[in-house]
Amino acid sequence: MALAQPNPGSPARTEDHGGKPPQQRSTPPLRGTLATTACMETLQVGYLHAVAAAAGCSLSQPFPDNGIDWHVSHGAPGHTVDDEVTIKVQLKCTYQIPPHPPGATFSFTLDNAHLVKLARTPVSVHKILVVMLVPRSQDDWLRAGHDRLDLRHCCYWTNLAGHPVTGRHRTTVRIPTSRIFDDRALCDIMARVGAGGRP
Fold first, then answer.
1. For the whole model, what pTM was predicted?
2. pLDDT of 68-113, one tens digit each?
3. Based on the number of CB atoms within 10 Å of its own CB, is 4 exposed (0-12), middle (13-18) or buried (19 or more)?
4. Which numeric CATH code is attached to 34-194?
């Protein structure tokens, strides 16, 4: 698969320590030695927290983790099934898919055991898979300015309820590029679940 590349359409970081653009700094920042995959996990959690905050949702983390990363809850007077509804969210992150994936979907591979959990139906609490695409280099993950913090690139979501297992050990699923995971998408998901429907 192609590796993620920086998005030329994103705003450049115009200022850094000492007022110098990052390209003109004499030395790169002293980043920690934590594995890149561990940093990717932290980054996707930051994205989820930002989306949940903007959507007015609360978050909780199952302990111990039983194959689901987060529970997201949304209270609103318009819900008919309860005053507060909850979904389960499984997060994944990759730099092997470029930003703005072409076409209506992109491929993502899951271990079969994970897919079985996400595909179970019927359920009392709905589950969604959220896949984050990031640049390969940590240097390109964030762009900070006086008026914004850009976190790159994007998360997409899907509901895999009823999806068949097709591979021997792993199964490739299709993630719709139309389903960008942001606060409006999360509010819409919660409205549908609050009305007794699926995400």
1. 0.85
2. 999 999 999 999 999 999 999 999 999 999 999 999 999 999 999 9
3. buried
4. 3.40.1350.10
